[in-house]
Structure formats: structure tokens, C-alpha cells
Design a protein that fits this description.
Layout (H helix, E strand, L loop, with lengths): L19 H15 L5 H16 L1 E10 L2 E9 H4 L14 E2 L5 H8 L3 E3 L16 H6 L6 E7 L5 E10 L11 H38 L5 H22 L3 H16 L10 H4 L7 H8 L1 H7 L7 H12 L34 H16 L10 H10 L7 H9 L1 H10 L12
Antiparallel strand pairs: 1-2, 1-6, 2-3, 4-5, 5-6
Length: 426
Amino acid sequence: MTLNSPSQRGNSGSKDVHNDTDNRTQILQVMEKLAQIKDVHALLAEVLLQARRLTRADAGSIYLIENNVLNFSYIHNDTLFGAAEVNRYLYASHPLAIDNHSLAGYVASTGKPLLLDDAYHLAPGMPFTFNNSFDRLSGYRTHSILAAPLVTSSNKTVGVMQIINPLNEAQQPSTFTPGDLLLLKHFANNAAAAIERAILTREIIMRMIRMCELRDPKETGLHANRVGAYAAEVYHQWSLKQGISDDEIKQKKDSLRIAAMLHDLGKMAIPDRILQKPDRLNAEEFRIMQYHTIHGARLFRNQESDLDVLSAEIALNHHEKWDGTGYPGKIEDIYQDHPRLGQGKQGEEIPLAARIVALADVYDALVSQRVYKGAWSEITTLGYIKNQSGKRFDPQVVDAFLAIYDVITAIRDKYQEGRSPSSLVT
């Protein structure tokens, strides 16, 4: 084991000398790609992937600092999970104290990177310990570890990136080199700036949602986070079944999560007597409520990006139904003064993103407590969704939802009612 410098290197197949020019070029190319990513979750996935590619690492994880603890935010492990990103571990909650009781805690508290040859054989007197609980649960064997703080240009530590087990040419675990350490430190410094920007974007989104929450007690930041996460993961599963390329999946998933969170912003235009009514709405009140879809879409009239287009599609169409009985229906011009609700859109006339958010939104409403209803049980909720496949919901979207239901429940647990608002960043 070494602290910041290697010792007792074997013939691992790792290269101790890196071509600085090639590395700088590669990092610049990666950073250009990262700058295009809007959602913090999608960004963390890409940061971890690129860090592993730069150092040939088999696995890794990212922790973000939240409420003065390290919150487990993303994990990759090619040996255990393959290339699949959709698994319940993405939404697991494993906070770590920022202290010497873990490697990540030590790095966060000191701001110093770590290079370990073998996590199981630490030299006596080291100011940190290695927690092998994940290895014991999964059967994985951690060997060499690199951990670096994610420090912004303002010298603020926002998290820790930890990568594990570089693979040699025979695809066997070897050890990281001093060159790997320098490369990861440089990459982490650049990545931290991108993560800080994405967190700021997320905070702006959450402020918009909290504004809506001031008027509508049902529209909470937790609900928005759950719907956004459900939608992103259902889309991922649906896309895999359709044979869509990884790059296209990542691009669409990045925007979809944010756009889905904004699906109900149009409720800000609905009168309080309707929005805050504790009972079910009557026919006239419901007709007025239906216009929140149009009001929401209008917010994105000046469409400067794909995210604007997607947000407008979802806001307008997330109450349409597969069988054509939804609302607001086909409207020639949603920007006219008093648009009339039209005949419901049907099947694939409804944009895919809206079909996904429709299911995510209904599921979350059913399993959540409301002032006018109790929470439905899991069995009743899943029975309803299955029954409505081909009626209210797109059958393929239902299939994708059910295929990752372990992920859905993990998301619900992560963003459960009662968590503090600041926990919504991760």
C-alpha cells in the first residue's frame, strides 16, 4: 500500500509513462463532451465512465457532498453489472461521514488524493480504513484504488471520485501508476467545474418547482425528482429494447429527466380555489385544470434548445391517453387567446416522452398520500397499470416500466417524503 506514491510494482501491464500531449488532447475532447450535458445525474455517469477509460479502471463510484456528508451518487462496475447503467445501486443511499473512517471521507476532509496498491493490505498507522462491505455483499474483490477530490475553481470540494482495479492487457486487475494519479487529478479538477454547473442548473430547476409548490401542495420537489428519475430509467429500458445507440440514449435521457421534472409548471396559472381544493374537482373545475397542460407548454414558446422542445412536448401531452381519451387533445394553435380543447391524441400521435411521463406521473400519484386520497398498495397500483396497458398507457412503456421495477422502487425510496429539500441535488 502507498499513500500518494506507489511501491512494490509488479509486471502489471500498466504504463508508468503517459504521453502528456495525448492526455491533454483526450481530456480536452472529454471536457467538450461533458459541457454539453445538462442533467447532473447524466453528467456523473459520463464523468465516471471517462475517468475509467482514461485509467483502464474496471469499476468506480462518485460521492457528492450534501448536508456535510458524502452521498453515494453513482457507481460503475463492468465485472458485476456489465455496460448496463440501469440497476438499483444507482439510487442506493449510503452516506459517509467526511472523516477518516473511509477512503472517500479521508479524501474529502483533507483534499488529498489517494493511490492504494491493495486496499486489503494497508500499512499500519494509516489515517483511514477500507470498508469492504460492498465486496462482501457482491463477491467483488477490490485491489488497487485511486481516489481524488472534486474541487471547483473557487476551491470548494463538491465530492470525491474513486476508481478501482485497472485492467492489464489480459483483462486482469493490476495497479494504478503515478501517471494515472496525475491524470485523474487533472481530469477531476476539470470535471468538478462541469459538475458545479450541472448542480447550479438543477438548483434553478428546483427553485422553479418550489415556486409551484408554494401554490400547489401536491406539486413537491420530491414528486418532481421521482417522476424525472422514473421517466429517465423507463426510457433507458425502452431504448435498449428498440436497439437505439448508446450515444442517442444518453443524449435523450439527459434532457428527458429535466423536462419530466417540469411537467406541471403550468399549474401556476390555475386559480387557487381549484389548485388548492382538498376534495375532488367538479366537472367545470376539472375543465379549467386541464388547461395547465397548455399553460405549461406556452412557457417554452421561445425554443432555444432541444430541452425546450422536449419540455413543451411533455407539458402539453402528459395527460393524453393511448386510447385517445386524454387531454388537451389536438389543438391547432395553443398560443391563441382561448384555445378550445380538442379530440384526444391517440397512440403514437402522442410524443414518446409524454407517454413515458404519463405513466411515471400516474404511478407516483397512486402510491403517494394525497389530501383527497390514501396511498394505493403496490399490488393494487401494479394491477391498475397492467390493466391500463393499451388503454391509458403505451403497452411498450408499461413493459419497460415493469422490467425495471426494482429500480423504480429504489428511486421511490431515495426520494421519499420527509427528506430535506437540499437532498434533491443528488
